[in-house]
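Question: Now follow the chain.
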Amino acid sequence: MMRVAILGAGLMGHALALVHALGGCRVRLTDTHAPTLERAPGLIAAALATLREAGETDRDAAWLGTVITTHADLAETVADAELIVEAITEDAEAKRALYAALDPHAPRDAILASNTSYLDPFPLIPEQRQHRAAIAHWYTPPYLVDLVDVVGGPRCDPEVPIRLRDLYAGMGKHPIVLRKFVPGYIANRIQAVMAMELYTLLDEGVADAAEIDAAIVHGLSLRLPLLGHFMKADFTGLPLVQKALAARMVPPPPPITRSAALDTLIAEGASGVMAGRGFYDYGGESPATLFEERDRRLIALKRALTQIGSMIR
């Protein structure tokens, strides 16, 4: 079993611990915030229970205790790790401090993989770690969303991203090896451009949040799982795509850094599912119930898409 250290036990870290355990690894999990670390086993167990009840795994809570352990001490967590997954906050100085703290204690040949979303972690990593430094970026919830962005650092041994790709492909995930680091990778960059247009439509009163979401669910999303974007263009016909680009039928979204609708909700304390209200009112349902419902629906969707099959080979 590969020995994996997960640094950070929050939203992504606890879920990544479960992903790696289900993938056959022995996991040590740590966090500098004691309440976060104490809460992690319960969150992991709840996610596993959802997967078990849906028939996605036959593993149970007793098994968890044999493959995932929590540790308050960083040195103990990374001492014999083959893979160190950094999943802490998107703060450059916090990451730099963590990399410096683990450096004296982690094996020299351990792979250091950051789950960073937008920050470039490579300038923050000690020189002697550069040859084993990479990014393995996941999407939430990672035990259901299979995409993993893999990027080797500028001085990384070429075999490191290949090893990560093979590891995660072996877990049934879909790793994509990028040729270089770009903030946001592919999916998040596309999502960021969409978000600028969506918030503009919302703030200009073109439609409300539910109507905009309906356009995505019942229109855009129906074809994307089967065709992606470029194959969809092939079915549309490339001459029409070319003419649409030339005519600029839809102006590009303006670069925005804030949304009035978003700012208003946050000021009201409506920060999303954890608060019980965001763009939608969740009617007093607990976050745990809402996460479970989301996960069950994602499982059903994945099963249906697997049965239907994508046209992208």
